[in-house]
Amino acid sequence: MTDALDSLGPPTDVSESRDAVARRLLEGVSTHAIFMLDGDGKVAAWPAPATTLYGYEEAAVLDRHVRTLFADDEGEGDADSLPEDFFAEPSEESVEFECWHRRADGSVFWATLTLSPLWNDEFHGYAAVSRDTTATKEYERMLERQNDRLKEFTDILAHDLRNPLNVIQGSLTLYEETGDDEHLETIGETTDRMARLVDDLLRVARQGNVVSDPEPTDIGEVVESAWRSLGGDAGATLTYEPVPSVSSDPDRLRELFENLFRNSVEHGSTSSRAEPDDSVEHGSTSSRAEPGDSVEHGSTSSRAEPDDSVEHGSTSSRAEPGDSVEHGGNVTVEVGPLDTGFYVEDDGPGIPDEITDDVFDHGFTTRDDGHGYGLSVVRTIVNAHGWDIVATEAEGGGARFEITGIEFLG
């Protein structure tokens, strides 16, 4: 404030009024939006810094109530912390509160607004100071998310690791009593399960880091790489409709697709996990998978190599005699674009309505041999990119996951 005063220089006229000096002061402060309210809470003065922050010209806000600057429909914050009757009587003390404010262009920002009463023998209204504290709000949100994740991990460690430890202790006691090697087998299986659980927990923890150095990513390349890396199911078909490139961590995005594909194949098919000769359809063109097939990354279709047996132009992929199928189940997984993102869906049995909100929780699973971290990892990766994800029902009744909030490149 002192710097702002110094920058004004002396009054140009000794008769310059106090109000004029005050207005020059308000014009000289650019770090915050400072404006004046009358005793009823209506805007009485709107200097240039206020226009810079809010985007409203003076004529648009003069004589309008300060509440018109609030974005009450954002569902967070509390404009109600400024009581309805606050302006009924002159205030003796300053009041400060936080809520969402709306700019002239419709965008919102988290603001700290301080109202200070102006007294000089008589009450002259309020000096209002508005500060954009969105960055602070986002940091607080990040801390809240981290605290939530820490609590989730604590719960997991307390529950998921204690249970197998109890099994090991019980089996060890039984072995000491009976000498039956069956109990040693139980101990071995349980320790293997614990090792997988620890790996899953570490994976979730690492994926929680915010993506700080994203790079342009070809979704088609990532999708095809993820599908092939699973080993897939020879009875499973992947259909890909081109999605524009995005800014992401490609390795983590690949793991997102791997987990969604694995979820579809394991829950939507009765066949074994896929072998490298999976079939992949790209739009209206598909490849008929043969044992020797190879896939070039970066294209939106499978290209025939000298040793390949790939036919283009068909609308389906068929498992050939060399394919590995134990039980003969089939599932089709589809990836396609949305207005602000993409979807992954399958034609399997889908997700019951009663558990739609639970599928992303750490440790939630409907399989006896599952750990319940695949979709949790997906959600963590999505959050790390600043995107959103919902689980819903595909048009054909299968499971559908929609990832949105993405700004496409180009």
Automatic annotation (TrEMBL):
Q: Name one Pfam family in it.
A: PAS_9
In this chain, the stretch annotated as Disordered covers 264-341
* Residue ranges constituting the PAC domain according to the UniProt record: 93-145
Keyword Hydrolase on entry = no
| Listed GO MF terms | phosphorelay sensor kinase activity
- PAS domain residues are 18-74
- Give the matching InterPro entries: HATPase_C_sf, HATPase_dom, His_kinase_dom, HisK_dim/P_dom, HisK_dim/P_sf, PAS, PAS-assoc_C, PAS-like_dom_sf
The alphabetized UniProt keywords are: Kinase, Phosphoprotein, Transferase, Two-component regulatory system
Xref: Gene3D superfamilies? 1.10.287.130, Histidine kinase-like ATPase, C-terminal domain, PAS domain
Residue span, Histidine kinase domain? 156-404
Does the entry feature the keyword Kinase, yes or no?
A: yes
Catalytic activity, as annotated:
ATP + protein L-histidine = ADP + protein N-phospho-L-histidine
Q: What is this protein called?
A: histidine kinase
